[in-house]
Specification:
Length: 372
């Protein structure tokens, strides 16, 4: 179980790093390595040994791209594919001591019954160590891959304009809210104590309940669930860009990741979150985390030189939906301590530009500084 009183630092796992040119500076040289269990287990064990509080794993029906909603036509070295996040999470929970894994699962193009059953597996392997992040998809390519209903035409230039996102994606986020409600309702139908409940009975059918209707008609589910749920995972929502993600977070989330930037600093975002929560019926308490992309170095100049080289290799500046910290681990530690002490932030999720370099500095340099 995780410690609910400490400031928690998590690392986002994604390919060899978040920067589009991360491959050029990565210690991984064989692409096939990224699709082996040993690679991911090694990352999790290193993180756990260094005191990382949680890892996050991304989802996506289509290949990664450098620009939202646009297929890449370059032939450069980019990490495009992903393993299934539920499979990876189950492996990491079974083979490492990482305290928690946040599993992203797309809800726009998935069935709530399938999601509820899939997440029951890692929840059984690591009770109390799994968090579910429902992901809304506004990429038309995703719908084309899975044969789903086409989503609103959100163009790359729209993703940083809050009014456009709200207008185009309101129905998608409402659908996601219904989806989460249905999954939670299904988890309640087959509690773990229905199996091996004592005495001579292998199972106790009287403990299995029908589905309690939740959400909208688009997510009606016949139940009960076909697998037991040892410990229903809490829900985390990534809230960025627009009001709709904040509404979703207020309505369903136990945790929320906000994305501070120079234009929208952390106190402003937390104030927005609290206002939306106050206006949302039945909103529960939410623990706030900050998302931050990082490029670390021995000195500030070294970190900046690393970013410059990455950008030159990628052919343009790194575009991120959250702030990018460029500097030393010592300076980052002071910034995170300021956030922690000044805002009541519960933790941060760090997105390494290059995992082997930046996550390593988080584990070996940053975390010891935060502990002292």
């Amino acid at each position: 179980m995780t410690d609910d009183t400490s400031f928690r630092v998590g690392i986002a796992l994604e390919g060899v790093g978040r920067h589009p040119a991360s491959w050029s500076q990565s210690s991984v040289t064989d692409p096939a390595e990224l699709f082996t269990g040993d690679h991911w287990v090694g990352r999790a064990r290193e993180a756990a040994s260094g005191g990382v509080g949680f890892l996050t794993i991304e989802d996506g029906p289509t290949l990664r791209t450098d620009r939202f909603g646009t297929a890449d036509d370059d032939t450069g070295h980019r990490v495009r594919g992903r393993l299934d996040p539920v499979v990876v999470a189950t492996l990491l929970l079974a083979t490492s001591d990482i305290p928690e894994v946040v599993v992203t699962r797309n809800v726009t193009h998935s069935n709530p019954f399938h999601v509820a059953a899939q997440l029951a597996s890692p929840a059984a392997v690591g009770p109390g160590r799994v968090v579910w992040r429902p992901q809304v998809s506004a990429d038309a390519r995703d719908a084309a891959v899975v044969g789903g209903v086409p989503t609103p035409a959100l163009r790359p230039e729209d993703v940083y304009v809050p009014t456009r996102i709200a207008r185009r994606l309101r129905d998608l986020f409402k659908d996601a809210e219904d989806h989460v409600g249905t999954v939670r309702g299904l988890w309640a139908t087959f509690p773990a104590e229905a199996l091996g409940g004592g005495g001579d009975a292998f199972w106790q059918p009287g403990r299995i309940r029908p589905v309690t209707p939740q959400g909208g008609p688009g997510h009606a589910a016949a139940g009960p669930l076909t697998v037991p749920v040892a410990d229903p995972p809490p829900v985390a929502v990534l809230a960025h860009h627009a009001l709709e993600p904040y509404r979703l977070a207020a309505a369903v989330a136990d945790r929320v990741f906000v994305t501070p930037t120079d234009e929208h600093p952390l106190p402003e975002l937390l104030e927005t979150l609290h206002r939306v929560e106050a206006l949302t019926p039945d909103a529960g308490p939410t623990r706030a985390y900050a998302d931050l992309a990082i490029v670390l170095g021995d000195t500030d100049r070294h970190a900046q030189d690393r970013l410059t080289l990455l950008n030159e290799t990628a052919g343009g500046p790194w575009a991120s939906d959250t702030g990018v910290f460029v500097g030393t681990a010592d300076r980052l530690a002071h910034e995170l301590a300021r956030w922690r002490d000044g805002t009541g932030l519960f933790g941060v999720r760090l997105r390494p530009a290059v995992h082997s370099e930046d996550a390593g500095r988080v584990i070996h340099d940053l975390l010891p500084l935060l502990r002292t």
